[in-house]
Task: inverse folding
């Protein structure tokens, strides 16, 4: 029962297969088995938020889930944000334009948390943004530019017509 | 930072979960939302032989009203409770307490039953369940039993649940009438474990005196605690400032804070009483503004 098993998970709309032991975290499975290295691991114990992904549209820390728990759920990782032609998602665009990242290590987690926020609340206040992102740590930016990027992305998403595919477009 | 190897079972029903716990007993550990257990595994502070994952037991994920009580299945996520329509109006203490749990990604995954069974003295659910006269339904190989939340906690991370028992649900009584309540915490950063936290609830009679009072604290001893002496001092009184001061002074006898990196025992004791007063003042104001129902902000 503790040995490796075949797993089939749905990530970014695709069904992907890999092997995992029960103890393999979802984060390690995404990175090591599926090659989706956009999900970053900082603390590996649920504090830093770098490994945040969406599970059925809700933000979760992929270091606190086991890979075996992901079967039957719809996962979205940072690789699922950009369009098929490589053009950035409006949230990614806003992070770039507003200098909301420096080293970029925490960015995938922030982007996924912002996806969830803007899907729930298209016009969040600064306080709501800060509260929603409180589980994501960034050691470079001081957060100010991240908040500005989220406000800009929210405006952009409210004004722009919905784009096919991808979360919260 | 990687969990040690373990065998893994994912039962699809409560019955199967109970069977698994009966079979593996001490060797097994139940996995609920995983927001505390998985870090413990990663640090190798926990190393169960068998992990029995409750996340496929859909029958434990429910919220329902039953004869004035809010009944919460053990695998109900914090977020589900937070999103319950009208919760703030029905019981602001409960709404604000749940909002204070960690960060959104933790609330999306963590469960009510997991939090109760984990018995972290700084966690919100044990205090909320104590304050609201919670009652637990527990299922094990020897059948089902009901116990008051008051009888659940022993000390740090320790409950009276047997190793092979599964917490099924908790039932909370939300006081109705001219009620005001709140939950306040002090933490270094938003979403961190609280240095101290307080839940307060006051129900006022027609003449403005206190008909019912609840005062609970977290982070200030080995388990969440109800400040019974303070509650008793409030019941029957006119809740003026002097009366609240008297009740807050009685909090001292209920708490036994200890020193840690976040602050000394004396600091925690001070913070607990400042928060208790703040919470009681807020609860009183909300109750007074209210003709009936709980006094959450409009």
Result:
């Amino acid at each position: 029962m503790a040995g490796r098993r075949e797993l089939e998970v749905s990530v970014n709309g695709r069904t992907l297969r890999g092997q995992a032991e029960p103890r393999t975290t979802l984060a390690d499975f995404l990175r090591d088995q599926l090659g989706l290295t956009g999900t970053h691991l900082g603390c590996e114990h649920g504090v830093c938020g770098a490994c945040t992904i969406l599970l059925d549209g809700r933000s979760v820390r992929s270091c606190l889930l086991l890979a075996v728990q992901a079967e039957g759920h719809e996962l979205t990782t940072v690789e699922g944000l950009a369009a098929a032609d490589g053009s950035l998602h409006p949230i990614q665009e806003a992070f770039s334009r507003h200098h909301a990242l420096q080293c970029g290590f925490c960015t995938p987690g922030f982007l996924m948390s912002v996806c969830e926020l803007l899907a729930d609340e298209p016009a969040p206040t600064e306080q709501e943004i800060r509260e929603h992102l409180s589980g994501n740590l960034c050691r470079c930016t001081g957060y100010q530019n991240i908040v500005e990027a989220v406000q800009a992305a929210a405006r952009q998403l409210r004004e722009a017509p919905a784009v096919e595919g991808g979360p919260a477009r | 930072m990687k969990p040690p190897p373990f065998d893994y079972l994912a039962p699809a029903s409560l019955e199967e979960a109970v069977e698994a716990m009966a079979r593996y007993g001490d060797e097994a550990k139940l996995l609920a939302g995983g927001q505390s257990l998985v870090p413990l595994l990663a640090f190798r502070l926990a190393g169960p032989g068998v992990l029995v994952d409750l996340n496929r037991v859909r029958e434990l994920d429910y919220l329902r009203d039953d004869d004035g009580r809010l009944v919460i299945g053990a695998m109900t996520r914090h977020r589900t409770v937070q999103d319950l329509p009208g919760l703030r109006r029905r019981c602001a203490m409960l709404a604000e307490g749940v909002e204070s749990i960690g960060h959104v990604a933790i609330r999306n995954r963590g469960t009510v039953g997991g939090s109760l069974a984990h018995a972290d003295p700084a966690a919100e659910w044990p205090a909320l369940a104590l304050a609201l006269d919670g009652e637990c339904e527990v299922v094990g190989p020897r059948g089902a039993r009901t116990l008051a939340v008051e009888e659940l906690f022993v000390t740090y991370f320790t409950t009276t649940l047997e190793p092979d028992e599964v917490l099924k649900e908790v039932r909370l009584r939300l006081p109705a009438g001219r009620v005001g309540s709140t939950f306040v915490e002090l933490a270094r950063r938003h979403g961190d474990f609280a240095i101290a936290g307080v839940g307060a609830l006051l129900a006022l009679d027609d003449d403005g005196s206190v008909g019912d009072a609840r005062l609970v604290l977290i982070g200030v001893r080995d388990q969440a605690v109800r400040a019974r002496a303070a509650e008793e001092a409030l019941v029957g009184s006119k809740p003026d400032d002097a009366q609240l001061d008297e009740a807050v002074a009685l909090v001292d006898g209920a708490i036994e804070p200890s020193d840690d990196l976040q602050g000394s025992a004396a600091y925690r004791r001070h913070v607990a009483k400042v928060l208790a007063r703040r919470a009681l003042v807020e609860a009183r104001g909300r109750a007074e503004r209210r003709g009936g129902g709980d006094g959450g902000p409009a």
